[in-house]
Amino acid sequence: MSPEFLSVAMFIVLLIAVFLGHPLGITLGGLGVIFGILGYGPGAFFILANKTYGLMTNYVLVAIPLFILMAQFLDKSGVAEELYETMYIVLGPIKGGLALATIVVCTVFAATTGIIGASVVAMGLLAAPSMLKKGYSKELTAGVITAGGTLGILIPPSIMLVVYGGLIGMSVGKLFMAAFLPGLLLSTLYLLYTWIYCTFINPQAGPPIPKNERTHTTVQKIKMTFKSMLPPLFLIFAVLGSIAGGIATTTEAAGLGCVGALVLAALNKRLDFKMLKEAGYATLKITCMVMLIFVGANFYTSIFMGLGGGDVFTSILFSISSNKWIILSIMMFIIFILGMFVDWLGILLLCVPIFTPIAVEQLKFDPLWFAMLVSINLQMSFLTPPFGYALFYLKGVAPEGMTMGHIYKGITPFVILQLIGLILCITFPEIITWLPSVVFK
User: Fold this and answer.
1) Residues 6 or more apart whose Cβ sits within 8 Å of residue 230
2) Stretches in the chain below the pLDDT threshold 50
3) pTM for the complete prediction?
4) 13/8 Cα distance (integer angstroms)
5) pLDDT tens across 237-280, in order?
6) DSSP letter for each residue of 175-241
7) Peptide bond into 386 cis (omega under 30)
8) How far is it, in rounded angstroms, from Cα 299 to Cα 45?
9) In degrees rounded to 5, what are phi and psi of residue 77?
C-alpha cells in the first residue's frame, strides 16, 4: 500500500471512529500506532516516544493546568455572583437589562478564566432563575447564557490559545493580544442584538424589572459597580498586564493568576480545605483529559503528515480552486462542520497542523490572523448542535421547564452573530492584528 493511500484511509477511519462515539484521545493514539506500524514498521514506536517526550518538555504547556486551576479558584470565589448582582441593579431597569447584564458578566468572567464549562454553569445557576422569574423568554435566556459563556474560549487567558501556541510554536502572548478585540467585538454584537431585539422587535421577551425594585441611587450604583468590577479587573491586569508589559511569560502569568484567584477567594471568605480539594481534583481531571488528547493527536498528526497526508489534502484543495479566498472559505467550512460533531481540542490538533502550512506557505496569509480565524470558528463549535458543549452545560443546570428545544432556538441568532464576527475579522484584518502590533512593537 502506498503512503498516500494509508494517509487517506487513516483520515477516513478517524472520522468513522469519532462519529461512532469512541474516546478521541485513545482513538487518535491507537490509529497512530496502527497506521504507523503499517507505514514505518516498529520505528513508529520511536516516533511516539520522541513526540511524547517533546510534548512533555514543552514549557508553554505548563500554563494549561495553571489556567485551569485559576478558573476553578475563581469559579468558587464568589466574584461572578457579586458582579451579577450589581449588573442586575444597574441594567435591570432597561428593556432586556438582565440579558445585557448576563453578557457583561460573561465578558468580564471570560477575561479571567479560559474554561467554558465554568462560565456557562455559573451563569446558568445565577442568571437563568432570575431572568425567567422576571418574565424573560426561555429562548433569550438560553441564548445569552450559552453565547456569553463561550466567550471564555476566545477572550484571553484562553486554554485554547495556549494549546494553539504550543502546537505550532507561536507566541501565546501575541495570540492573547490578537484575540482580545475579536472577543470584545463578539460581545458587542451580542449586546447590540439583545438590546435591539428587546427594545424594538419583541419587548415582551425581556421586560425591565418592576419599579418597586429600583431603589438604588445613581451614586450607589456607581459605588457598587466599582466595588464588584475591581476584583476581576485586578486579576485581568495581573495576568494580561504582566504578559503585555514583558514582565512575565505566559506560564509565569498563569501562576500569578492562580495566586490572584486564591487571594480573591480568601477575601470573599470562600477559601477552605474543601474548596482547595475540589479545585485540585477538577484541575487534575481536566488536565489529564487535555493531555491525553494532546499526546494522541500529536502522534496521529506526525504519522499522517509523514505518510503524505498534508500533500494529499493540499492537492485536493487546490484542485477545487486556485483562488486563495475560496480555499480559505473551504477550510473554515470544514472546521465549522467538524465543530458540530468533534471536540474543539480534537479539531485544533487535527486541522491546524494541516491547514496552517497551506494558509501561510501556499496562500501567504498572516499566521496570527489565520490563527484567530480558526479560533473564532472553533468558538461556534460550542453552540452548534447536535454536540455543542455549552448547550449541554446549560441543560445540566437549567431551571425546570427549559428544554433542549428552547436552547436550540435561543442559540440560533447568536451563531449567526458569531458568523458575522468571523466575516468582519476576515474583511478587516486590523481587528486582529492592530493590538499585537502596538503591544509588541
Assistant:
1) none
2) none
3) 0.89
4) 9
5) 888 888 888 888 888 988 998 999 899 889 888 889 999 999 89
6) HHHHHHHHHHHHHHHHHHHHHHIIIII-GGGSPPPPGGG----HHHHHHHHHHHHHHHHHHHIIIII
7) yes
8) 10
9) -85, -15
